[in-house]
Design goal:
DNA polymerase, domain 1, six-stranded parallel β-sheet, 9 helices, 41% helix, 12% strand, globular, binds magnesium ion
């Protein structure tokens, strides 16, 4: 398939053309990569133990699509840490998370999701601006992306260091795209959770949902993304049928 055809591919049922945006902002966990190590999780546990004095875990917290701040808040609220105590300890806790992940960065095992390098290469070659929009803390997120060998593709990233709500992170991403490319620049997010879809809508951007995390097509399409694909391989036309996306234009 030649490049022109690729750029004009259309998701037939709603007219969404995935190559029409000017900038593409990718979620990390479940979208670019899946980690197979306890580094991030252990760092969160260490922070909760050292700062708040509670020996607890994030097990059972619905952390997919949540920011690191949101995960910590939920895990600590569950064991009775008050709002005020949480806020007071937060700067120290975040510092510990970042420091501990950095100390064990060589143990991060990041499996790249299907076709991600090819999609990033295709977008880069087409002159698109590429960024990361993630609920990770900045240093944690970049270390995962680095471990996956994908750092060279991205010009910037938006993270949860100062924003607990994903929608605020995504809004900052759109603002950064407009700062770099102009007010009319169009942003498309790519993410694997309902939270990504909702945050992209609140940021008035397009969004492609991918089923490479824990959520499946039926669940993600119910939040009405512009397209929903099993993996980014479908964007390259290798298995192009777009399953079950909404009919809205
Ligand atoms: Mg994710």
């Amino acid at each position: 398939m030649d490049p022109f055809q690729l750029q004009t591919q259309t998701f037939k049922s709603n007219g969404f053309r995935w190559m029409d945006a000017d900038a593409y902002l990718f979620d990390i966990d479940g979208t670019l990569l899946v980690t197979r190590d306890p580094v991030h999780r252990n760092a969160l546990h260490l922070a909760m133990r050292e700062v708040y004095g509670v020996d607890t875990t994030i097990d059972g917290v619905a952390y997919h699509g949540r920011t690191d701040l949101g995960i910590l808040r939920a895990a600590l609220d569950r064991v009775g840490v008050s709002h005020d105590a949480f806020e007071t300890g937060l700067p120290a806790a975040l510092e510990i998370v970042c420091r501990d992940v950095s100390a064990h960065a060589n143990r991060i095992v990041a499996n790249v999701c299907s076709a991600i390098p090819d999609v990033l290469e295709r977008l880069k070659t087409a002159g698109k601006l590429l960024g990361v929009a993630s609920g990770n803390l900045e240093s944690v997120g970049w270390q995962k992306v680095e471990a996956a060998g994908l750092r060279r593709f991205f010009s910037f990233g938006c993270f949860s260091d100062h924003d607990e709500r994903r929608a605020d992170i995504f809004r900052k991403g759109v603002v950064e795209v407009q700062r770099r490319l102009g007010e009319d620049a169009r942003t498309c997010f790519i993410g694997d959770t309902p939270e990504d879809i909702k945050a992209a809508r609140l940021a008035h951007a397009q969004v492609i949902a991918v089923c490479t995390g824990i959520f499946k097509t039926d669940e993600l399409t119910s939040y009405e993304p512009d397209a929903c694909v099993a993996s980014c391989a479908e964007l390259l036309g290798t298995d192009f049928e777009c399953k079950g996306q909404t009919l809205s234009s």
